[in-house]
Amino acid sequence: MLDRFNCSPRRLASRALPKLPILRWARGYSAAAAAGDLVAGATVAMTLIPQSIAYASLAGLEPQYGLYASLVGGFVYAYLGTCPQINIGPSALISLLTFTYTNGTNADYAVLLCFVSGIAEVVAGIAQLGFLVQLVSLPVVSGFTSAAALTIASSQVKGLLGLSFKSESFIDTWRGVVTHVKEVRLADTGLSLLCCLVLFGMKSLKDQRAPKSLKKVLWFSSVARNAVVVILAATLAYFLHEDTTHPLILTGEITSGLPSPRLPFLSSGNGTSTAPVGAMLRHLGSGLLVVPLVSIISNVAIAKAFSNGKTLDATQEIIALGVCNVVGSFFSSFPINGSFTRSALSDASGVRTPAAGFYTGLLVLLTLLFLTPLFYYIPRAAFASVITCAVLHMVDVDIVRKLWRANKVDVIPLAATFSLCLSLGVEVGLLCGVAVDALLLLLYHTAPPLQLQFVHDGVLPPHHAIYPVGGLHYAGAEKIRSKLMKLQDSQAEFNQSKAEKSSRNVVKSNDTESSVVTVKVPEINNILVVYCSRLYRVDYTVLQSLKMIVQEWRGTIVWYCASAALRHQLDCSMEGLRYCDSQEELQRTLGEMSPSVPLPHDTTAVTGETRL
Amino acid sequence: MLDRFNCSPRRLASRALPKLPILRWARGYSAAAAAGDLVAGATVAMTLIPQSIAYASLAGLEPQYGLYASLVGGFVYAYLGTCPQINIGPSALISLLTFTYTNGTNADYAVLLCFVSGIAEVVAGIAQLGFLVQLVSLPVVSGFTSAAALTIASSQVKGLLGLSFKSESFIDTWRGVVTHVKEVRLADTGLSLLCCLVLFGMKSLKDQRAPKSLKKVLWFSSVARNAVVVILAATLAYFLHEDTTHPLILTGEITSGLPSPRLPFLSSGNGTSTAPVGAMLRHLGSGLLVVPLVSIISNVAIAKAFSNGKTLDATQEIIALGVCNVVGSFFSSFPINGSFTRSALSDASGVRTPAAGFYTGLLVLLTLLFLTPLFYYIPRAAFASVITCAVLHMVDVDIVRKLWRANKVDVIPLAATFSLCLSLGVEVGLLCGVAVDALLLLLYHTAPPLQLQFVHDGVLPPHHAIYPVGGLHYAGAEKIRSKLMKLQDSQAEFNQSKAEKSSRNVVKSNDTESSVVTVKVPEINNILVVYCSRLYRVDYTVLQSLKMIVQEWRGTIVWYCASAALRHQLDCSMEGLRYCDSQEELQRTLGEMSPSVPLPHDTTAVTGETRL
């Protein structure tokens, strides 16, 4: 396991040096690819722009920060990314986490979080820590995603109903809704309902049966639904709006223009109070680890989903994600990562290369420069509807059925992760889910696969055989010992009862490889052969258990086909062990030990029976 | 794994009903056994009485509580215990934990902790939770024990030097010693030095070479060293003591007489303030879980060490421990469990049955009734010396060497547990150690044993073979997929380069069971046979990974010897899989798939080479 860290300086350097995947595809970039990328880039922008403003409010920031966060990702990823479909920008989950860790502060904290997360991701990429992603199983990911989606949707209930109160967690929000139920604004609620209906309706358009020519139009309408709903709602609000009455809660002024580049790690000066960067980092606390971790997990998962069987360069993907965050933080971005929705959209729009990010980025740039004044009239309810409809499909109910059919035990980590994420917060829930999974793995290893057999096939002298398989870990040490001790006890009993009865049983050997012979059940003896050919790992606790077996076993133990490494381990703990490395040697050794039994070549003499 | 919980009501009842192991041995109790038990019981009492007073002060309680805690264990264990050597009473580790959780309160809290721990232990015994002990590996136990011994010894440094200040943790104590170094009392320090020297000297007596008659005297002196040192120190203090000057810090008044039985779960009335039982339980907090857990772990470990190869009834041992605590709590006992030192002593004194506990208990009873006034003059330094010398041998340095030789990775949980126990407290350190161990197990499973081979032995048509072994867990899912994808890529490359070179390589098959033949390396094809006969467990994450392999593999996959359970799992996730259950079937199936290759029986035609 340690050789993962055991690399030469040159190898380290070749890993650490930045790679530019753009060099691989840029030279052969064709007009056809450019056309595909342009369409995909524009389509993604149409979803990204309304989503990003909504996610900014989810993260507790002013709307323009959403656009700032959408600006840099596409450009940087075009240079460093390997997966054409991925669009790096604000995502629901990371926005929620950003809110969790920067709640009650100002935008400088979110930008600092983006910067530090980016650094952490680059470091994780270079240090090959991407393998940590493997410690999170699918049931845990699914429970986490579903709970996060529910948490996000719940946080939007305020926006949907036109309420405003402070809340952080899932339970908090619903308690608040119940308390403030009398303040529900009818106009906002009505608009939300309308928006959601239109969104669901438009989404289902692309699944309708239609002639091929119409099919494309339907598909495009379905894809453009977020933009359409937001524009329609804004138009409605514009006409309803009067200077004195405000029937709908609006987005209001958005600072237009590009973000001015600034260093993300300066002290935060917030009018009345300033916070030094150390205090800001302390405030962000565990978020500095959780945000990059979750970003990496979801980004690798998305990249894997779109890799189409090609081996994924996870390291490169993680570094690309990190650089996007670091560069973004200089342009006032909050933490960003890939979004599954946008990636799927890009894929469906016929993306060819990561260059699609350029076009998306350009459109965001134009929006920031010219379109922000138009956003004033967009109702908050419309944005809340966009988020809610986007995340609700992330709730995966069907997986419970799948798990139940395929592997029932896997329901436990799913249920644990889901409920802990909702009750303790998504980030704590995720870690607890991984712990539950690890505990189940440990429990599995308390009863390792351990075939035990009394071999009396006529080929070898009769003996007990044990076939350990895979790894023997500390959790199973006791099981191994007690199983063998029980064997020894039952054998003594058996011999006694046999001596009393002195009856002759005839059984069939169930060994398929040798010819099937019918033999008398021999006196059960106390020779134990440990077949080690499939034994790959033994830890210290198991070694001590084996040592006790060796001391307590009333008879002889032979170790068959033990690898050199295993031999070394056994010899370190015990003395005078007998090894056999070939069938012949085993036959000879066993023959010597049970001298009353003639050597196996004349089996008829042993059994007194004729071969079948 | 779930069948552990899957028991019939009758089986549950037979487990839940209390067993009385005393019935097994009481009928045949002989005079010889009684003599052995009497000697052992008296010897243990000689160690137990001074130790228990010392441990009471370790737990932050008045001296008489140590005697109360020693009173009941022996009597109850004689009825319920199965291991003659074990003596249930105060132990260093549990006293330390009691101090951690009841520090700053009064004795009622410790008694309540004893009661609740007892209940928890009985419940754990009935629920068969003893298997949880297996989750703690030997390196973790060793790191924990060593750190606990150092923590306990450190806590006695105050007593050794005659200092008095408040401290809780290991680091706390040493910082305090440095701060208060000017207040060191010379007389106490000198006495401590003397006591420790005498204790070490007397301990080594039993290892001296001597004629047989003298040997017994030496052994007895060695065993009685705690009592001897305490008596000598007390005599010295008696003569040094004057009414006006106190050169040594003494134990002082000990309440004599038996503890009056009382309900342990009543509110604590402490002169000025009373605490309801709910508040007391909240104060004890996680101690209500940690104390029984640690008690169970150490008790089972001790019982196992003295089981001499007989199968240990761990459930019965845990229930016996629990009942000792519950009954003890009605007589003002703080939490108790077995002690390794006393058990080893009992063993060496020739104990025969658990009845030895009766005699020990009787001697404690007599002490409480008549001897307590004599304890007034025992110097605190003498008790501190007794504890320090008793725990220091628990620090196991040698294990580092053993682990390094046998299994280097196991040094990590040892080091982690040891350092975390010292820095965060023993109870947190233990849990973190288990977590580190589980994480290492997970990391191991990121690279599961996975033999990959290109089989071209002349017996079966050439094919790729993969031999998964044991369990495939989520952590390894990615590894399996990437390894197979790499195989497919390299195979495509190989075929290409081979077509270019068109050279003929001759290799030797390394299969030992079939006759060794030299064959031409055939065109590497894309038939994959998954040999499942040694595959015992697949979880959902791995199933999804297998599904991706099936979708991405450019060729055919055959599943050989999949068990019914595995087939069911595979069929739940994928469709149209090909299974083969016998060698012949596999041969036929593979033959059909690679029609260009003649059937294997005329191998010479395939290879164009003669057999060796």
TrEMBL record, chains A, B:
Its main location: membrane. It comes from the Eukaryota. Residues 36-416 form the SLC26A/SulP transporter domain. The keyword Oxidoreductase does not apply. The chain crosses the membrane at residues 29-53, 65-88, 109-133, 186-205, 217-240, 284-306, 318-336, 356-378, 411-444. Residues 593-612 are annotated as: Disordered. InterPro entries: SLC26A/SulP_dom, SLC26A/SulP_fam. It is found in: Membrane. Pfam families: Sulfate_transp. Keywords: Membrane, Transmembrane, Transmembrane helix. It is a multi-pass membrane protein. This is SLC26A/SulP transporter domain-containing protein. It comes from Plutella xylostella. The lineage of its organism: Eukaryota, Metazoa, Ecdysozoa, Arthropoda, Hexapoda.
